[in-house]
Amino acid sequence: MKRITIALAGNPNVGKTSLFNAITGARQKVGNWPGVTVEKKTGKRVFEGLEINVVDLPGTYSLSAYSIDEVIARDFIVEEKPDVVVHIVDATNLERNLYLTTQLLELGSRVVIALNMSDMAEKRGDVIDTQKMREFFETPAVKTVGNTGEGVENLIREVIKEAEKGPHHEHEIGYGKGIENDITRLEKVLEEDMELSSRYPLRWLAIKLLEGDERILERVEGSPVKQEVGEILKGVNTEEYEAEIADKRYEVVNAVLPQVCTRCVQRFTKSDMIDRVLTNKYLGIPIFLALMWAAFELTFTFSTPFMDIIDTFFASLAEGVATSIPGLLGSLIGNGIIGGVGFVLVFIPPIFILFLLLAFLEDSGYLGRAAFIMDRIMYKLGLHGKSFIPMLMGLGCNVPAIMATRSIEDRKDRMITILVNPFISCGARLPVYVLLAGAFFGRQAGMVIFSMYVLGVGVAIFSALLLRKTFFKGTPAPFIMELPPYRRPTVKTSLLHMWERGSMYLKKAGTIILLGAIIVWFLASFPSGVEYGSEGSYAGMLGHVLEPLVAPLGFDWKIAVALLFGFVAKEIIVGSMGVLYGVGEGEGALTDALQNDPSLFPLNALGLMVFTLIYMPCVATVGVIKKETGSWRWTFFAIFYGIGLAWILAFVIYQGGILLGYA
Amino acid sequence: MIKKDMDNRVVFAAVVAVLYLFFGLMQIVAGIGYESGLNEALFVPADIMGGFMLMVVGFIFLFGVKELNSGVGEGVAYLYVGIVITLVLAGIYLLIMGSDALSAYGLGSEDFDGWTPLDDLKPVIYLAVLPFLGFLKWRGRFTLG
Question: Nearest-CA neighbor of A147 among A221, A88, A228?
Fold first, then answer.
């Protein structure tokens, strides 16, 4: 079968992932904020006997590689040389988007322009002439709507036609006499380097050198023509040239735009109207807090009856096991599997509801605004405004959140954001809060759980400030962010996003949590003949070794064992407690057991929630911190800093509370 | 005609602002521990965060009043967005009431012995009646596009 490779490129948040999903039938995560795609994703589509490999690239405003995601996108286009680059353009914002088109054409890539979100552009009265656009750019332009799939077949047909045409000629923009002279001189010199000239278009290479592109300058470092290039660049002010070159490209765009599009003028839109309120200098943060509070209220209160239903199911299952399967096997299934995994599954309703609400807020475009609203505070605290997006993503899972920091250009800003992200309370910690807050704080449970999330953000901000004043001195880079238009979230896509995040939780329950529960059950059941979960069991012995470390926090050996296993995945804390308390009759039974345990009361339960929030990241997060920082030193820092801070805070809560007479 | 309609919006926003600010403050004060007989009569719970939420809504409408009075036409945004937020919040608390009803009547949960819908009736729900009327009057303005 004949094969072609196409790359989807475009500015951030123009619907690349939606279009990728529409072309390949995949279900990659789509978000209404920039930076969802942080590394290239691949998919396939067989269309009329032709196999099309589709590569979804991270969003990039230009082909000058400033951040990691821009480097990934550019390197793929330049070095892998896909047959066709589909440049996905936000039809409602042609001026900014066509800037990248000029660069792709300069590169000599065979380009097809996908005018995405054209429905929105037409709705507001814009008329885009695709035929004229084709004539001006000498490349096809097709109208598409990524989230409905409209125009996708047309797009594929144009892509195939383009792929059959073979290599494209470079589309030249005149940059004025001075720059053009330098381009010509550099081209002549670079021609001598066979390796460079066979890999890159010479004119493009020369322009990048004049713009002071660091990655290209590095390439030239090892070249035999290094000295001659250096001589030419000596007399060049690269910053000035970069600005001049950008101006010329915009001149081209602005000359073409009125001829291909009528109206296309920004007016005071509905999105502007909403932003006037939601991003108001004084109201923005209070509105954000009020909406988040309402979301948490709904999550915890609305999920209660559904948790009760699941709880009742596991209680009857455990009862059946207890009466029908005697001995060790009965104990393994009842105490180990149902007690461990069953408890974790009881928390599916709040987790799924929270993810659904976050999906609604995200798809509407509101969460993107949160970064903008928080920028002023973040900047004062030494954090980059862009850091708030990974923080919000961390509410789902810290692993993709840390990967999302790739869109942060400045290394120091990025390192700080990575290191503080584990303090943002992910979904896996929710079962611990729901269990303990439900058991010890009654009607105030919602407030206590919400305060854990606020504390997580507070600790992250405090830690960022600390890191900025010590290891990563300096001021954060300025934050420029394009606010995406508000969109009405559809139930289907929001449910899909909820499922994408929530199914991870289900998968973990069936794999790593099940394994953890069985290990804890084994430790609680042996050596042979010992009373289940007693101090004489292996779990008891292990717990007693660890107990002195956590005794000042008011935790006993059972909590110590649960926290130890929580390193693998935070949900295991609840599962381990279920196993160690030997209550296979459902979450209600564990709540009763916790309430009847004389060593647990509201003060140390609160301390335990705080400890769970802050102590070391789970094993998957540790892995991604290592990958993204590329340093074991910072990975160990993240682990031990978290443990130390968690210990101090839990100690202050417990001992301070006792001093104040709360115990 | 246009002037009269604008005046109506200012009055509407002012009334909604005062109501939400008043009930929000009452809820916060009750949350701190100062409750009066009025709290029970008006179904105002002792809930600091809930009170904060109502006050935020009140301030949104107040900003609208301020801008519309100063002749800033775009100030109408506060009115429309405020209405949407009040309806979203009321919807959330109605869902919570529904789930409590399920616990009480459907599952017969012990925690909900003697529960009636009035136990979950809060200002955030009944105050939304006025914004809802506003929504019906200006419904053409509430589409995204």
Answer: A88
